[in-house]
What we know:
Strand 23 (473-478), helix 17 (482-497) and strand 24 form a beta-alpha-beta unit. By secondary structure, the protein is of the alpha/beta class. Strands 3-2-4-1-10-9-11-15 form an eight-stranded antiparallel β-sheet, covered by helices on one side. A seven-stranded antiparallel β-sheet has the order 5-6-7-8-12-13-14. Helices cover 37% and strands 23% of the residues. The protein folds into three domains: 3-248, Aminohydrolase, N-terminal nucleophile (Ntn) domain (Glutamine Phosphoribosylpyrophosphate, subunit 1, domain 1, 4-Layer Sandwich), CATH 3.60.20.10; 251-451, Rossmann fold (3-Layer(aba) Sandwich), CATH 3.40.50; 457-615, Rossmann fold (3-Layer(aba) Sandwich), CATH 3.40.50. Helix 4 packs across helix 5 (146-154) and helix 10 runs parallel beside helix 14. The structure holds 6-O-phosphono-alpha-D-glucopyranose (G6P). 6-O-phosphono-alpha-D-glucopyranose is lined by residues 307-310, 354-356, 359, 362, 405, 407, 608, 610-612.
Amino acid sequence: MCGIVGYIGNRDAFPILIKGLQRLEYRGYDSAGVAMISPEGNLNVYKKKGKVSDLLDSCKDKDKSGNIGIGHTRWATHGEPNDVNSHPHYSQTKDLVIIHNGIIENYASIKEGLQKRGHTFLSETDTEVLIHLIEDIRKHEPEMKLGHAVMAALNQVNGAYAIVILDKNDRDTLIAAKKGSPMVIGVGKDEYFIASDASPIVEYTKNVVYIEDEHVAIIRRGEELKIRTIRDKEITPYVQELEMELEAIEKGGYDHFMLKEIYEQPRSIFDSMRGRLNSETGHLKMGGIEEHEGKFKNAKRIIVIACGTSWHAGMVAEYLFEEYARIPVEVEYASEFRYRNPIIYPDDIVIAISQSGETADTLAAIELAKTKGATIFGVCNVVGSSIARATHAGSYTHAGPEIGVASTKAFTAQVTVLTLMALHVAKVKGAIAESRYRQLLYEMESIPAKVEEVLKLNDSIKKIAAEYKDAANALYLGRGYSFPVALEGALKLKEISYIHAEGYPAAEMKHGPIALIDEAMPVFVIATKGPNYEKVVSNIQEVKARKGRIIAIVTAGDVEVKKMAEHVIEIPETDESLVPLVSVIPWQLLSYHIAVMRGCNVDQPRNLAKSVTVE
Ligand code: G6P
């Protein structure tokens, strides 16, 4: 969470910082701030509660000159979101300023020590403590360079950080460091860009250096980039070429990133299969799995760890691996798993699913599983992300950048990759009949076109949204493969429209949620043709008997549910196990339209962030 940016070069820093912060706003938007050193040597700091646009308004008439600067967009952890707690934060003398993404866990004890030495603090943040500590170290050793003072301070802190520091008395240097929070440096001609991810950098340069944990970058105007560990060992920067296009991070004519990303799904699902699936030859190529084929073949158990929407994709994986490959699967919330002293065997396979590849709980759960000797396989979207690097092997989802905070195309790409993985393992194990395997490969190839068909239903889904936009509660039901989609549908609605929604296995409804059903309650059901169809129809009848209002996703041509439901959304027929890839689309569109109609900020829902790098 939190986005950080920095610039040093010959251009005006302010517009670059602002544009960068707007690109990173998905990471947090409780407050925003910038600091620049003007040509006259003034350190100008502007910060404001709210969005980057609020910051822009508040510093309209101020001096924003300077070709060195830092910026921050915050997702509050320590201290409420207000102007004072916003970053950048000053040191005691106000000569240094810092921006920080992460948490300094032992800040309270450090603060106490500093207070005893006369330091006074303006904010409630852990970040302010760190910059005071750095200055304090320098005060006692005036000859020490800022970079070394930063290293010394970082050796005293526990926790996670991506920081950038600016010194009022040195217009030619930025010091950056990271541990546990992401940081990338763009290397231009006589200029450097720093950011939490590459999106603020891509339009200026494609040469980037991903900073490793406990590394400190000393970025000096007109000089080569220098990197040292926090123990002062020199590191040679590894410059790599960015594989990201500017268009991928722009709205491209859509009103919101979320809508653009929903519409990108035929393409992103295709991209996640590209080069991996050949239905003609019956060949599936999953590099990561091939490397560890024996482990997968002999695995007695798969443990899936993930959070949020990725956890829902993991739920689908449970059904897939159990059905196709006959391997028992446990799906775990990373945040619970890591603190439970879980039983993990060396022959377990752990699949960690994460769009961002940065989720702190997932990362910590991976580290825990590693200590027990399990093989860790990553399913990540962001190339080169921390989770992708922490795993033994993995398969990228190749969905392209996902900017909307509510995950859409990342989910379908994750499910696609997990389906291919399950099929591949099933084939290797000989657990699936050749004919079924081949049929499923063909069917997978037809999914992008089927998703395209569903997207054509947008107008009718919008009408349904208009009818239910004022609901106070909603229930999402599904059975089998559709149960995780019910969970995902409910999550989409609550996170962007703030309507309370619950996802439930349809049959389990009678053990509780049925008490909530009355004529005001919309019940969103997936009732596609398949082994559970008749059972779901019975569940629909139970809702009808209590005057609940049914909105059902059905297989094209369905007649039975149509008779009972207020609305049906007909989706193309596919194999039962692949239905989630198609049936989730109407629930995504429905949430999107309801949120827009309720005047909610679809791409940046309140209190949420795209990348949760705190536990
Ligand atoms: C946040 C995001 C969700 C996401 C979850 C897990 O809560 O808002 O969209 O599903 O984190 O993130 P990950 O990047 O690990 O998939």
